[in-house]
Amino acid sequence: MKYLGRKGSSGIYQFIINKIPKHDVYIECFFGTGFISSVKKKAKLNFGIEISSALCSKLSMQYLDVDLINGDVFIELPTLLNSSILSGKNICIYLDPPYLHETRTCVDKCRYEYELTIGQHIQLLSMLEQISNKYSNVYILLSGYKSELYMSMLPGWNYFETQCMSRGGKRIESLWCNFNPDNFIKHQYDYVGQNYTDRQRIKRKAKNLIKKLSSIDNNDERQYILECILKEFDLVLHRKL
Protein backbone atom coordinates (compact mmCIF):
# COMPACT_ATOMS: atom_id res chain seq x y z
CA MET A 1 0.00 0.00 0.00
CA LYS A 2 1.35 3.45 -0.95
CA TYR A 3 1.20 5.71 2.07
CA LEU A 4 2.92 8.97 3.01
CA GLY A 5 5.70 8.34 5.52
CA ARG A 6 5.82 4.60 4.88
CA LYS A 7 9.16 3.14 6.00
CA GLY A 8 9.49 0.65 3.14
CA SER A 9 12.46 2.35 1.48
CA SER A 10 15.57 0.19 1.34
CA GLY A 11 17.78 0.90 4.33
CA ILE A 12 15.19 2.76 6.43
CA TYR A 13 13.39 -0.12 8.10
CA GLN A 14 16.70 -1.96 8.59
CA PHE A 15 18.13 1.17 10.22
CA ILE A 16 15.20 1.32 12.66
CA ILE A 17 14.97 -2.40 13.46
CA ASN A 18 18.71 -2.55 14.17
CA LYS A 19 18.11 -0.20 17.10
CA ILE A 20 15.16 -2.05 18.68
CA PRO A 21 16.07 -3.79 21.96
CA LYS A 22 14.70 -7.12 23.10
CA HIS A 23 11.16 -6.66 24.44
CA ASP A 24 7.96 -8.43 25.46
CA VAL A 25 5.50 -5.80 24.23
CA TYR A 26 5.63 -3.77 21.02
CA ILE A 27 3.51 -0.65 20.51
CA GLU A 28 3.57 1.16 17.17
CA CYS A 29 2.00 4.62 17.33
CA PHE A 30 0.76 6.56 14.30
CA PHE A 31 0.50 3.09 12.79
CA GLY A 32 -0.33 4.06 9.19
CA THR A 33 0.28 0.95 7.10
CA GLY A 34 2.35 -0.54 9.94
CA PHE A 35 5.33 -1.36 7.76
CA ILE A 36 7.75 -1.78 10.67
CA SER A 37 5.28 -4.15 12.33
CA SER A 38 5.09 -6.15 9.11
CA VAL A 39 8.85 -6.78 8.87
CA LYS A 40 10.02 -6.98 12.49
CA LYS A 41 9.88 -10.13 14.58
CA LYS A 42 6.69 -10.18 16.61
CA ALA A 43 6.76 -9.65 20.36
CA LYS A 44 4.61 -11.60 22.81
CA LEU A 45 2.08 -8.75 22.70
CA ASN A 46 1.73 -6.35 19.75
CA PHE A 47 -0.33 -3.18 19.48
CA GLY A 48 -0.89 -0.53 16.84
CA ILE A 49 -2.48 2.85 17.53
CA GLU A 50 -4.04 4.59 14.50
CA ILE A 51 -6.52 7.48 14.44
CA SER A 52 -7.91 6.65 10.98
CA SER A 53 -10.85 4.26 11.27
CA ALA A 54 -10.65 3.62 7.51
CA LEU A 55 -7.04 2.43 7.79
CA CYS A 56 -7.81 0.25 10.81
CA SER A 57 -10.66 -1.42 8.94
CA LYS A 58 -8.50 -1.96 5.88
CA LEU A 59 -5.59 -3.46 7.84
CA SER A 60 -7.50 -5.49 10.43
CA MET A 61 -7.33 -8.70 8.36
CA GLN A 62 -3.70 -8.12 7.36
CA TYR A 63 -2.43 -7.75 10.93
CA LEU A 64 -4.17 -10.59 12.73
CA ASP A 65 -1.37 -10.78 15.31
CA VAL A 66 -1.48 -7.04 16.09
CA ASP A 67 -4.14 -5.54 18.33
CA LEU A 68 -5.13 -2.44 16.35
CA ILE A 69 -6.49 0.40 18.47
CA ASN A 70 -8.49 3.02 16.59
CA GLY A 71 -7.92 6.20 18.56
CA ASP A 72 -5.79 9.21 19.48
CA VAL A 73 -2.19 8.44 20.53
CA PHE A 74 -2.34 11.13 23.23
CA ILE A 75 -5.16 9.21 24.91
CA GLU A 76 -4.57 5.58 23.94
CA LEU A 77 -0.83 5.31 24.67
CA PRO A 78 -0.97 6.40 28.34
CA THR A 79 -4.07 4.24 28.83
CA LEU A 80 -2.30 1.21 27.35
CA LEU A 81 0.83 1.74 29.45
CA ASN A 82 -1.30 1.84 32.60
CA SER A 83 -2.96 -1.46 31.70
CA SER A 84 -2.36 -4.34 34.09
CA ILE A 85 -1.61 -6.73 31.19
CA LEU A 86 1.66 -4.85 30.54
CA SER A 87 2.78 -4.85 34.16
CA GLY A 88 6.34 -6.12 34.66
CA LYS A 89 7.03 -6.46 30.92
CA ASN A 90 9.71 -4.81 28.81
CA ILE A 91 7.95 -2.47 26.40
CA CYS A 92 9.17 -1.02 23.11
CA ILE A 93 7.32 1.96 21.63
CA TYR A 94 7.98 3.08 18.05
CA LEU A 95 6.44 6.33 16.85
CA ASP A 96 6.35 7.64 13.29
CA PRO A 97 4.22 10.81 13.57
CA PRO A 98 3.47 13.22 10.72
CA TYR A 99 6.69 15.20 10.38
CA LEU A 100 6.96 18.89 11.20
CA HIS A 101 5.83 21.01 8.23
CA GLU A 102 9.01 23.10 8.41
CA THR A 103 11.18 20.01 7.79
CA ARG A 104 9.35 18.82 4.66
CA THR A 105 10.57 19.58 1.14
CA CYS A 106 7.17 18.97 -0.49
CA VAL A 107 4.73 20.58 1.92
CA ASP A 108 1.93 21.07 -0.64
CA LYS A 109 1.98 17.47 -1.88
CA CYS A 110 3.08 15.74 1.32
CA ARG A 111 0.04 16.01 3.53
CA TYR A 112 -1.44 13.43 5.87
CA GLU A 113 -5.13 12.90 6.45
CA TYR A 114 -4.50 13.68 10.12
CA GLU A 115 -1.74 16.25 10.67
CA LEU A 116 -0.13 17.47 13.91
CA THR A 117 0.06 21.14 14.80
CA ILE A 118 3.20 22.62 16.37
CA GLY A 119 1.37 22.52 19.68
CA GLN A 120 0.65 18.82 19.24
CA HIS A 121 4.29 18.09 18.41
CA ILE A 122 5.26 19.83 21.64
CA GLN A 123 2.58 17.86 23.49
CA LEU A 124 3.89 14.60 21.97
CA LEU A 125 7.50 15.26 22.94
CA SER A 126 6.48 16.27 26.46
CA MET A 127 4.42 13.10 26.81
CA LEU A 128 7.32 10.92 25.65
CA GLU A 129 9.68 12.61 28.13
CA GLN A 130 7.18 11.96 30.93
CA ILE A 131 6.82 8.30 29.92
CA SER A 132 10.58 7.91 29.70
CA ASN A 133 11.07 9.37 33.18
CA LYS A 134 8.22 7.35 34.71
CA TYR A 135 8.91 3.88 33.29
CA SER A 136 12.37 2.30 33.40
CA ASN A 137 11.12 -0.68 31.37
CA VAL A 138 9.90 1.38 28.38
CA TYR A 139 12.19 1.86 25.37
CA ILE A 140 11.09 4.57 22.93
CA LEU A 141 12.15 5.11 19.30
CA LEU A 142 10.89 8.21 17.49
CA SER A 143 11.25 8.85 13.75
CA GLY A 144 11.38 12.30 12.18
CA TYR A 145 13.50 14.87 10.39
CA LYS A 146 16.02 16.79 12.46
CA SER A 147 14.63 20.05 13.83
CA GLU A 148 15.46 22.60 16.49
CA LEU A 149 12.23 21.73 18.32
CA TYR A 150 12.94 18.00 18.57
CA MET A 151 16.61 18.46 19.47
CA SER A 152 15.80 21.02 22.17
CA MET A 153 13.00 18.96 23.74
CA LEU A 154 14.88 15.64 23.71
CA PRO A 155 18.34 16.76 24.92
CA GLY A 156 19.21 13.58 26.80
CA TRP A 157 18.11 11.17 24.09
CA ASN A 158 20.41 9.28 21.73
CA TYR A 159 20.23 10.63 18.18
CA PHE A 160 20.92 8.69 14.97
CA GLU A 161 20.51 9.49 11.29
CA THR A 162 20.72 7.84 7.88
CA GLN A 163 20.21 8.92 4.28
CA CYS A 164 16.98 7.98 2.54
CA MET A 165 14.91 8.75 -0.55
CA SER A 166 11.66 10.64 0.07
CA ARG A 167 9.05 12.14 -2.23
CA GLY A 168 11.06 15.34 -2.09
CA GLY A 169 14.35 13.66 -2.99
CA LYS A 170 17.30 12.62 -0.82
CA ARG A 171 16.78 13.34 2.86
CA ILE A 172 18.36 12.53 6.20
CA GLU A 173 16.04 10.35 8.27
CA SER A 174 16.43 10.89 12.02
CA LEU A 175 15.76 8.57 14.95
CA TRP A 176 15.65 9.52 18.64
CA CYS A 177 15.93 6.84 21.35
CA ASN A 178 15.52 7.26 25.10
CA PHE A 179 18.17 4.55 25.55
CA ASN A 180 21.54 3.62 24.07
CA PRO A 181 20.95 0.72 21.63
CA ASP A 182 24.60 -0.35 21.94
CA ASN A 183 23.98 -1.35 25.55
CA PHE A 184 21.18 -3.79 24.76
CA ILE A 185 20.71 -7.16 23.11
CA LYS A 186 18.59 -6.48 20.02
CA HIS A 187 15.14 -7.95 19.40
CA GLN A 188 16.44 -9.44 16.14
CA TYR A 189 19.57 -9.44 14.01
CA ASP A 190 18.12 -10.07 10.55
CA TYR A 191 19.19 -6.64 9.29
CA VAL A 192 22.43 -6.12 11.19
CA GLY A 193 24.92 -3.93 9.31
CA GLN A 194 25.32 -0.32 8.20
CA ASN A 195 24.00 -0.88 4.67
CA TYR A 196 23.28 -3.60 2.10
CA THR A 197 26.96 -4.22 1.36
CA ASP A 198 27.80 -4.46 5.04
CA ARG A 199 24.87 -6.84 5.64
CA GLN A 200 26.10 -9.11 2.85
CA ARG A 201 29.60 -9.10 4.36
CA ILE A 202 28.24 -10.18 7.73
CA LYS A 203 26.14 -12.94 6.14
CA ARG A 204 29.22 -14.28 4.34
CA LYS A 205 31.17 -14.25 7.59
CA ALA A 206 28.38 -16.19 9.34
CA LYS A 207 28.29 -18.78 6.55
CA ASN A 208 32.07 -19.22 6.72
CA LEU A 209 31.99 -19.73 10.49
CA ILE A 210 29.17 -22.27 10.16
CA LYS A 211 31.11 -24.05 7.42
CA LYS A 212 34.23 -24.26 9.62
CA LEU A 213 32.25 -25.62 12.54
CA SER A 214 30.46 -28.14 10.32
CA SER A 215 33.77 -29.37 8.89
CA ILE A 216 34.87 -30.75 12.27
CA ASP A 217 34.36 -34.51 11.99
CA ASN A 218 34.54 -35.31 15.69
CA ASN A 219 31.01 -34.82 17.01
CA ASP A 220 32.12 -34.36 20.63
CA GLU A 221 34.71 -31.77 19.65
CA ARG A 222 32.20 -29.88 17.52
CA GLN A 223 29.60 -29.98 20.29
CA TYR A 224 32.13 -28.75 22.86
CA ILE A 225 33.08 -25.76 20.73
CA LEU A 226 29.42 -24.96 20.09
CA GLU A 227 28.60 -25.11 23.81
CA CYS A 228 31.54 -22.80 24.60
CA ILE A 229 30.22 -20.27 22.09
CA LEU A 230 26.68 -20.48 23.49
CA LYS A 231 27.96 -20.18 27.06
CA GLU A 232 29.97 -17.06 26.22
CA PHE A 233 26.99 -15.55 24.36
CA ASP A 234 24.76 -16.26 27.36
CA LEU A 235 27.19 -14.40 29.63
CA VAL A 236 27.23 -11.41 27.28
CA LEU A 237 23.43 -11.50 27.10
CA HIS A 238 23.05 -11.33 30.88
CA ARG A 239 25.66 -8.57 31.16
CA LYS A 240 23.75 -6.41 28.69
CA LEU A 241 20.32 -7.13 30.16
Quick recap of the structure?
The protein has 241 residues and is of the alpha/beta class. The chain is built from eight helices and seven strands. The relative contact order is 0.15.
Give a structural overview.
The chain has 241 residues and is an alpha/beta fold. It contains 8 helices and 7 strands. The chain has 2 domains: 12-183, Vaccinia Virus protein VP39 (Rossmann fold, 3-Layer(aba) Sandwich); 196-240. It has helices at residues 12-17, 35-39, 53-59, 73-81, 118-134, 148-153, 196-214, 219-240, and strands at residues 25-29, 45-50, 67-70, 91-95, 138-144, 158-166, 169-177. Strand 4 (91-95), helix 5 and strand 5 form a beta-alpha-beta unit. The protein is globular, with a radius of gyration of 20 Å. The model has no long low-confidence stretch (mean pLDDT 87).
Largest sheet, if any? 7 strands, mixed
Distance between the termini: 37 Å
Strand order of the largest sheet: 3-2-1-4-5-7-6
Percent in strands: 15-25%
Whole-number tally of structural domains = 2
Mean pLDDT: 87
Low-confidence stretches: none
What is the element layout, followed by pairings?
Blueprint: H1 12-17, E1 25-29, H2 35-39, E2 45-50, H3 53-59, E3 67-70, H4 73-81, E4 91-95, H5 118-134, E5 138-144, H6 148-153, E6 158-166, E7 169-177, H7 196-214, H8 219-240
Parallel strand pairs: 1-2, 1-4, 2-3, 4-5
Antiparallel strand pairs: 5-7, 6-7
Characteristics of this structure?
241 residues, alpha/beta, Rossmann fold, 2 domains, 8 helices, 7 strands
